[in-house]
Amino acid sequence: MSFFDKLYDNILQNQSLLFVGLDPNPEMMSTDYESPDVISSLENWLQFIITETADFVCAYKPTLGFYEALGIPGLELLQKTLAAVPSHIPVILDAKHSDLNTSTIFARTIFTEWQVDAITLSPYTGQDHVAPFLVYPDKAVFILCCTSNPGAEALQQCPTNESPLYLQVVKESKNWGTPEQVGLEVGTTNPDILALIRAVAPERMILARSIWAEGGNLNQILEAGLNNNGDGLLIPVPQDMLANPQLSKEIQSLRAEINQVRNKIIHDASTCSVWLPDVCLLNQHPQHDLILQLYDLGCIMFGEFVQASGAIFPYYIDLRKIISNPQIFNQVLSAYEKILQNLNFDRLAGIPYGSLPTATGLALRLHCPMIFPRKEVKAHGTRRVIEGDFHPGETVVVVDDILISGKSVIEGAEKLQSAGLNIRDIVVFIDHEQGVNNKLLEKGYHGHAVLTISEIMNTLYEAGRINEEQFSVFAEV
Ligand SMILES: O=c1ccn([C@@H]2O[C@H](COP(=O)(O)O)[C@@H](O)[C@H]2O)c(=O)[nH]1
């Protein structure tokens, strides 16, 4: 289940926008838990917090720094804490991770080993840093846009109060992923700041922080930050409440106070005009999300790349990477499958080497036998040109990854034909649109592509993944 599905299920079930920080901070621990063994005191206290709050929150947020500060026992405590959170409640790891070099390996550790549902990230390394976290389709990230620390003002309000950096971060990070992938972390006591961010990002989930610092303005904060559905804002339980032995009671009364404001907003909104998103989903490419995920995975690269023909292209598509990401690989297979369902054939043939895993996946899905023409015939062993069993006269559909000049796929198809097989259709994932389809037709083959290169580039450009320069260089090819 995705982070957002989990989150909304809990918002509904527990009727709560509250989240709790699961932070082993000895300074904030209730004195009731103090003992000579600090780690087990903290463990007992965190367990108490989870037990008291699980029915009244929509998420938990452990701060990695507090666990790291306790050394190896701290990291062990983190594992115990994560295991103690009921599995239906999402966990947002507050790491404020900011290092590009460790992003891929860190994403893998926290999402696949620790199994947290979301993470907080610092924005300064840009989309390159965020991308490795976004290739996990069920997970989400929260980008730190604003903090309430007075010392940060000199940066956040830069260059002017009218066009402050924190709003630029909000606008930019909206291009980094869909609302189901990228939320915003906003630390502020100022409802005006929250209102500005909400106006720029009406569709984003906001993880509110530090709202209690000045107390007393909960209503304004809620009015500024909630969306028209009365949600879209995750509200922290005040830290000092977590040391209260009556935690469960306290949290329920806070939840009631918040829900009163939410209900008023929902009621008022139902009598007002409906909010329309600033993105027209009708115009979105049907493979929009898959294109962005392929880009985030590094399958679409920009730079100078020499093709087999010697031509230099400003980009290179490397679909071989998908085999290491089962989620994306599955989506790619589904896209091929939609085309293959409408074709008639006895066998599938993959073009080595890049398309062999894809052809294998499709053969398994479609329960269809597979063969492949060898790239080179070995001087020993069977010396076969075609691997796998077949009967001359059968019809074979050829599967390949990308059509540039068509040379590889035509060579493969001709080897199959020489063995007495019929080739009517060639299915690729990407057509580079250099008139290769006509070349295929001249040979008697019908070319089918899941995507064209211009559909990919348009989608990346509209989503803000590539800039104008990259987009225009592509248009010149
Ligand atoms: O961006 C690219 C370009 C090429 N490839 C590989 O080349 C063949 C397609 O080239 P043809 O000129 O049509 O023979 C394709 O099968 C890839 O293996 C690539 O991966 N990415």
From TrEMBL:
Residues 17-224 form the Orotidine 5'-phosphate decarboxylase domain. Keywords: Decarboxylase, Glycosyltransferase, Lyase, Magnesium, Pyrimidine biosynthesis, Transferase. 5-phospho-alpha-D-ribose 1-diphosphate binds at R374, K375, K378, H380, D400, D401, I402, L403, I404, S405, G406, K407, S408. Pfam families: OMPdecase, Pribosyltran. Pathway: Pyrimidine metabolism; UMP biosynthesis via de novo pathway; UMP from orotate: step 2/2; Pyrimidine metabolism; UMP biosynthesis via de novo pathway; UMP from orotate: step 1/2. The keyword Hydrolase does not apply. The keyword Magnesium applies. SMART domains: OMPdecase. GO terms for biological process: 'de novo' pyrimidine nucleobase biosynthetic process; 'de novo' UMP biosynthetic process. Its EC number is 2.4.2.10. It catalyses: orotidine 5'-phosphate + H(+) = UMP + CO2; orotidine 5'-phosphate + diphosphate = orotate + 5-phospho-alpha-D-ribose 1-diphosphate. Its cofactor is Mg(2+). GO terms for molecular function: magnesium ion binding; orotate phosphoribosyltransferase activity; orotidine-5'-phosphate decarboxylase activity. Homodimer. HAMAP family: PyrE (MF_01208). Belongs to the purine/pyrimidine phosphoribosyltransferase family. PyrE subfamily. Catalyzes the transfer of a ribosyl phosphate group from 5-phosphoribose 1-diphosphate to orotate, leading to the formation of orotidine monophosphate (OMP). This is Orotate phosphoribosyltransferase. It comes from Atlanticothrix silvestris CENA357.
